[in-house]
Amino acid sequence: MTGIEFFDEMLDSAGMARRPYSDYAEWFAGEDPKSLIKTSTEAETFFRRIGITFNVYGQKGADERLIPFDIVPRIIAAQEWRQLERGIEQRVRAINAFLSDIYNRQEILKAGRLPREIITNNAAFLPQMIGVSPPGGVYTHIVGTDLVRTGENQFYVLEDNCRTPSGVSYMLENRETMLQMFPDLFSKMRVRPVSNYPMELRRSLSESAPPGFTGSKPCLAVLTPGIHNSAYFEHSFLADQMGAELVEASDLRIVDGRVAMRTIRGYKPIDVIYRRVDDDYLDPLNFNPESLLGVPGIMDVYRAGNITIANAPGTGIADDKALYSYMPDIVQFYTGEKAILQNVPTWRCSEPDSLAYVLDHLPELVVKEVHGSGGYGMLVGPAASKKELAAFEAKLRAKPDNYIAQPTLALSTVPIMTKSGLAPRHVDLRPFVLVSPKSIYITAGGLTRVALKEGSLVVNSSQGGGTKDTWVLGD
Question: pLDDT tens digits for 285-341?
Fold first, then answer.
């Protein structure tokens, strides 16, 4: 990637602070660098004390880690955020309409706008959801849309996360940490808050309660696979923050056609489950019969309309990276509008011409598994060795349907704090969206992930990336 110009979000070509960063740059110039480095170390101690960790699978002796946190905020101007909000809301509406369509009338397939096999041959498509209408018609209650930036007004959607998007707890704790460390900065700059997310989540889930719900307020629960899950901290954090019950499969059973949780006074019916368990493990009677993480019969209760499951089973098809390449068409089909947010150009390796191109240009491309996540199973061509390229070529030839490829984008950079001062590193952004039958709420900011290694384009925490606080400025 040498010789490529990267858009620096803080500094222009003359080395002057761009407008969103002008107040921050003025503040930073008056600070002692050694003091800031010491503060950065204190932040790590704070995160370790309150237990903000994630688990890494398959790495002996490294099952619990801190996600590195950088104290230099990523700052987004108000007008830039308004444009992103419009594009995100349009995309989320289209995804929800798409999910409703493919599990019911399948008009987009009849119109020939999507190849039928991309749905019917897809492991993420759940036949058990055909003809099922979730309460309020909402399939995607919580969405994380990953964005990257390449220029002044150039944002791309990197991928959609509609299954069980994670990371919101880190967004909230990053902000809390920054507020404690730099209260004067928040007084100086008009930063929009993110602390209302848990209550907005509770409101949005409550508005999605099943039609038969009666009572003053719905009973909400967060279903977790348990303490060994990589995102368990987040499950318990969100349950606590929004005043919901944290439950595992062993706490639940079906009682009188309802999903009920065990309490000291017997079993209490639940109205809305925010599940952090994958589809295949949700119900051993309908999916994987060996699952110990799900509730036997919960899908029957769901089909009867007696519980809301957020997100709905089967939403994972909208995360599929082969389907991603059709998103501009999907947005236009369901909204009648051109997509506001652009897709990254994508080659579907299942198509012979695309596969031939990808094999010829492998050192220049990023190749991803269609169902991959967390930075696993991907190839960053410009950073790969000859041995890695040869091994990946063999994978592509053996199973081309399993991969898509994209150009290596010139991701924007934001400074991080190093021992020698500020240094640019590549970033992405995951804003969080809440959808109910009544409204769509987009948090003003989101989780900025940063590639801490110089020159690296991989921002995932499982691959050595860190996080930053994301500041959206008020008008």
Answer: 999 999 999 999 999 999 999 999 999 999 999 988 889 999 999 999 999 999 999
For residue 84, what are its two tokens? 């992103």
What does the pLDDT look like over 348-384, one tens digit per residue?
998 999 999 999 999 999 998 887 665 567 888 888 8
The amino acid that residue 422 corresponds to is: L
Is-contact 331 147, C-beta < 8 A?
no
Angle at alpha carbon of residue 175, lines to 169 and 178, rounded to 5° = 140
Per DSSP, the residues of 54-83 read EE-TT-TT-SEEEPPEEEEEEEE-HHHHHH
- As a residue count, the chain comes to 475
Q: Residue by residue, what is the 3-state secondary structure of 75-144? A: EECHHHHHHHHHHHHHHHHHHHHHHHHHCCCCHHHHCCCCCCHHHHCCCCCCHHHCCCCCHHHCCCCEEE
φ, ψ for residue 177 (rounded to 5)? Answer: -65, -45
pTM: 0.92
Cα torsion 267, 273, 274, 279: sign:
positive
Contact between 149 and 158 (Cβ < 8 Å):
no
Q: Are strands 447-450 and 64-66 parallel, antiparallel or unpaired?
A: unpaired
